[in-house]
């Protein structure tokens, strides 16, 4: 595993351990079965073909299995493809673990925990603070494991907490600039806004949408959970209404999934900060893979744009 | 009160009791104050000017006051206007009551109650039936008082229940035609779909949007209430999820206020029946005021169309 | 032909008679020619590959030929594919007929005829009734053969008549609910609205758009035909104008092909009933192929949605 | 009538004959009735107020009456208004005629007739030529009287013929440039494309939409008329289909009223020429009323733009 | 001038100095001329009517004249209106100055200058720094006088510099959070992005669009100016291209006036910061005029939304 | 080279010289490398597969190499494909030149030069004429080499000049019809409108977008160049402003790349003529490849329409 799979180049050989993200059977034009595998490590993923696959192969090389593989990187329909020469399942003696093959946030979990604790500590309104603590406790495990999305941005282990903490930092700075902002509301909105994804998605590794996620969506799920939490905590008053509103409106427009547009200042700010952090995450990761003087791949969630990396900067 | 205010014609005199729907002060070009009153009875409303209004007048002629008024119907900017010659507040001896001046559903409340009871009685799924009963009980008073909307369709006393009962009838017929429809789900969706309006709107007479209504909307309010009801009734299972989904999706599209599009058959049918009954209500009332061979006023909620009333039909 | 082609599963063998819907020649990566066949019976269709096809094969296996075929069902790009092991054209002694391989309406033709006759019999306006009779006579053959569309809904033999009869039933029920509806106009609009498809499409089996269909469209074609019919029958008056308007407006919006939006009540109702029956047809058929607890394939004409089939219902 | 009404300036007096385009009764804030008159001559129109109007005035000053009027031009809500000091109906001895007060095309009718004759004479295809001749004959009177639209462009007497002839000239020039164009088709499309307006509109002076116009529209009306004409003339063949298609598609898009987009070259060219001539007509007339260095009024039908008239050109 | 005009309430008297923003003549229904004045001080503006205006009044009360006025605040079409009882032009002895009646930024000019100097000082890239200095020098006077827009946000004296400095602060904070951002590019983009408005608008008081502004727009004006500046300074290279791109793309979309969408990271960030500062400016000012528990007026540039001011916060 | 590659038919053999437009390596399902070549001559292009390609082949058959090739035309995914049997690079003795394999305008360069000279000669305004001459001189070489676009219309050698000259002819004719048009402005706008493409695109053969082209676009590039040219020529005045405006607005709408819509008559006309010539170019070329009675391929840039070629015309 000299080179990670996200950084190989066409024409090079590859040898190392990879995780099978998905496995699909096909039949080649010569009538023989083959397997199409998506293989990944924490740096990225690649499509691979295992030609003339036996029934044994089909049973062995399945989703979430770690394999040791050797082959060459060729090009297929403009994308790199790994042509497998040797492949075997990993064995206990190999000493490889599932979590080593998943992408994760570039910040340590304990740092994320600290940042979150600090933000809650700063809250002055007891109602808001209690509701937020309730959810931190309820989801203490998932919060630091789940991604913030299935794809596009922060789609890695701890992505949800990473996204929240970046947003808290921006919120703190904007509060300095625009003093009228209610910091408690904004911090609470940021911490809670995407917790519905814990119900909407199936889990931290290779997440899918649950049936509840598809039929209700994380926005409605979380708005309702706030109502229930307030009831359990016997909290009444405008704060509950406003927190629900912030969750409902944080996608800003009906066609983007929000049943109400932001109608309080902090809801509008929440939406803007969410936008910034998601966009920065997408742009930065795409640009880091791009050489100066070249354009990134098209980024679907950024209106399918390719971004240019300038030459004039000092850099690698 | 020989003729109701919805049926007067320009050039005619008018004398009778009317309810003040709103009163606004203005200053005329000669510098003297006047009052612009919107006056209504159960047949419609008219704008009226009370020129050279005294301070006494201002205090007397306020919203929700019933008045006895005499004057002429003239035309102003293409719409009829009542020019007031005499006006006085109603007195106990006049024997007039607020409810007599509000438009109401063309069906009696007890008939609506019966239809609703019948529909619930037909339900076979006990979970669905219990949830529906819970809400009928909770809102037994408001359900037969509230309008179905602030304007456009069924915007009269008992409008909500009238709308529900019409929809139940259509649902029963469609079930005959398309047997795969789950009648329990569809009936429940129809009965519950707009109950959030009881929280969203301020009341049955001259309704406005409440703050909760503006910040959450009747769709999110009701989806959450179903969750709470199920919890109180200790009901778990797919039925709760599906009922919430039907509420969330019954406006069909994000830009029309639904955070999810219909993703089960009965949700799609609920949306279609809602559409039919709202449109029929608007068209029928506009056409009843239109002479054969003429076009109705433009109906904003029907893409601003004017509808033609054919000549060839038997006249009524 | 133990199992119909619409119900086979990947990994199973298949043997039976099928109709060739289309045949296309290709060249494999080994340089040898092959045939891609779309094979169908009344339950559905499947793609099949005939590798190393001879010139003889090319001439034999052409569109509308019935074949006896044996092979295995594999998966290709996520869709089932039939890998042909044996294939031969059908022979007179096989006793198979073209019509047995086409999908058809789930209602018998004579029932459709009866329903139509009944609706026309109920008409009271002689002008409307005569025009409708004229077209029933003119298209008595095609009406019960043509599909209602090339794809999406009622795209099977007798689909057009099946669609009309379902719509008539809904119209009858709505007339009970909303008595102001003019039943003659609505029934006539339903019966005539899609008859232009008989000119727009090439025929009942594997229909394509004709040049006239592409350049004029079924809406304009039928509006003009009504004009001509009225002239032949010496009918003058508003009914002709209104029937033409109903045809022109039944797609509701300019961007959906209607040069005028509905401007009479019955035209609006016609559009709504058309919408309901088309949507129910699509949803019901997709859900019948879906197991409880799963989602249907995406349905393009329903905004590309997948519909969920609930678990809690009684299974069938 | 020293100055025409389209050219008066605020602050100036006015005296002369004008035609009453519309008359509406109102009641002033002092309770006295007044008349709002729209007065016009061939150069433009102006709003006028007749304060303290008697019942006699109401009966005298009605639509299509010519009046002699004296007053001042003031400004009201940013637009000029004529404050009437003296007004009387015209008398036979005044020697004024209705047609003198209507705007008309800047080209003589006989020139328009000649141009049309020339274009038809050049046609080589006998089917197309016969159909065009049929309509020229059928509408020989209206064709040279009707406007091309109710407002926006060519909305004056002979506007329809003026629009057709300008378009024929552009078509002749484009044929030189792009020889593949079929001139017969294009000329015929131009001559016929708006003839449906003769049925859609009520007449040459102060035109309104007829019921037939509202329910069918000039596009569908004319497409059907071509079908009937061909039948009467016993013409069959592709030319009829193509001419109908050109009529149906000349508004280019569904949302602009065309049930089909242009699908033959000449239909696309017809649409483009129509666009050019309509736009030039609107721009030129607006700019002629604008001083160099200033912007025109906003032109609604040109996306509400104001156009700048350059200073550097030779002034006229 | 006890109370500023932006804070008066309907029913109260007003007396004090105000600036005439615009003056328009009208004619009342009694035939007498009147003046509609828009009067302003630094807190806001109000419409006022001067009834029975003499010719002398017309000449005296013109745009940019300061007047002393006494009257009452009434309501007209839902907006406050000042009914003038006494009015006279200001005199030298009144000691009032034009600039005292214009709204200005809530930050002192020298603070804005300092912030700008600091940002330029931090720049490391000499090319970028020189170009920015060039423009600061070129527009040293206008930069601290001009508003950032004609209406909506920062539409006050020094608004442009105020907007720039707020944006610089946010940029500094985002650079801390997302280290990959090129600070020089982003700072330069912020400082230059709206300088084209100095050419697009007529001046700091009551600004209009210039002809150049209307025909080219501030975006194209400024992109060209950067090109010229680079040429004068003999600067070549990627920095010039990138700065032009940032100007061209800072409105983000074609339909919002940008001929190119952001295609470098710093251009995207520039757009987002611009959005935040404009929105915060609009929301904060509207909310400051709103009582807790109420909604602001509709803000057109924020999708016509009304924002709610919560009750639970500490009041100010 | 009996038949050009744009006119071959499936099933036929092909032998002749072709230019390699692009070459991509792939790996077949049997594990052996192959080359996908796009081969072109001046009539069109075709995809070709070179199976079992050696390393030698990879180095030999690269972009812009001319090759002699023999093989058969087969069909692949509905498009013709050339199956290579023999291939070799061209040799000096073959006497073939690069330019012979590029599509070029159907008009000779010297004719285009003459037309351009004539138009400039007719100009009366010396400022406009000098600016146009400046650019003709500056780009005298590229102007007659570059295409007008990368794809869709006039995408061949001299396409830019061909497009300009066609547009000049239409402009001349429109000037006859609408005399108010300022011919100097319109001619200048036509000649200059797309010259920015010379910077935006990489060159006349197989053009790509340059980085400058991607970040600024030809519209902004050219508007700036006009400013610089005017400065060099010491020309001031409205003409410069208007020419810049015409460049900026010639795509008509923000979403089509114009930062300003046309706000002078000649800018609107420029846009319309551009539209006509681009559309005619696309339609004519597609129809020339289509048999009478058939439809063209879908043309993406014409809203994905297929155009019908009538049967009734004289065949060519």
From TrEMBL, chains A, B, C, D, E, F:
Entry-linked SUPFAM superfamilies: HD-domain/PDEase-like (SSF109604), Nucleic acid-binding proteins (SSF50249)
Assigned keywords, A-Z: Hydrolase
Residue span(s) of domain HD: 163-279
Gene3D superfamilies in UniProt: Hypothetical protein af1432, Nucleic acid-binding proteins
InterPro entries reported in the protein's UniProt record: HD/PDEase_dom, HD_domain, NA-bd_OB-fold, NA-bd_OB_tRNA, YhaM_exoribonuc/phosphodiest
Stored NCBIfam families: PRK13480.1
Name by which UniProt lists this protein: 3'-5' exoribonuclease YhaM
Organism lineage: Bacteria, Bacillati, Bacillota, Bacilli, Bacillales
């Amino acid at each position: 595993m000299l080179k990670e799979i996200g950084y190989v180049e066409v024409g090079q050989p590859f040898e190392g351990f990879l995780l099978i993200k998905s496995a699909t059977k096909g039949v080649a034009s010569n009538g023989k079965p083959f397997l199409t595998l998506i293989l990944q490590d924490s740096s990225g993923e690649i499509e691979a073909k295992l030609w003339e696959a036996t029934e044994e192969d089909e049973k062995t090389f399945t989703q979430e299995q770690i394999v040791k593989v050797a082959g060459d990187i060729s090009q297929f329909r403009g994308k790199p493809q790994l042509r497998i020469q040797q492949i075997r399942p990993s064995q206990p003696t190999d000493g490889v673990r599932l979590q080593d093959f998943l992408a994760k946030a570039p910040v340590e979990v304990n740092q994320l925990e600290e940042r979150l604790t600090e933000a809650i500590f700063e809250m002055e309104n007891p109602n808001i603070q209690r509701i937020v603590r309730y959810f931190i406790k309820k989801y203490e495990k998932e919060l630091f494991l789940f991604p913030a999305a299935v794809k596009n941005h922060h789609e890695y282990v701890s992505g949800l907490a990473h996204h929240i903490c970046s947003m808290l930092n921006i919120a703190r700075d904007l509060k300095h600039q625009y003093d009228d902002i209610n910091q408690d509301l904004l911090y609470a909105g940021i911490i809670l806004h995407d917790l519905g994804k814990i119900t909407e998605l199936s889990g931290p590794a290779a997440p899918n949408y649950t049936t509840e996620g598809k039929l209700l969506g994380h926005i409605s799920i979380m708005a309702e959970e706030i109502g229930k939490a307030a009831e359990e905590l016997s909290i009444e008053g405008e704060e509950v209404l406003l927190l629900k509103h912030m969750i409902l409106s944080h996608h800003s427009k009906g066609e983007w999934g929000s049943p109400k547009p932001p109608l309080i200042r902090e809801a509008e700010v929440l939406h803007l900060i969410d936008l910034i952090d998601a966009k920065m995450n997408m742009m930065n990761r795409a640009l880091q893979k791009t050489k100066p003087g070249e354009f990134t791949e098209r980024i679907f969630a950024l209106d399918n744009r390719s971004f240019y990396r300038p030459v004039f900067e000092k850099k690698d």
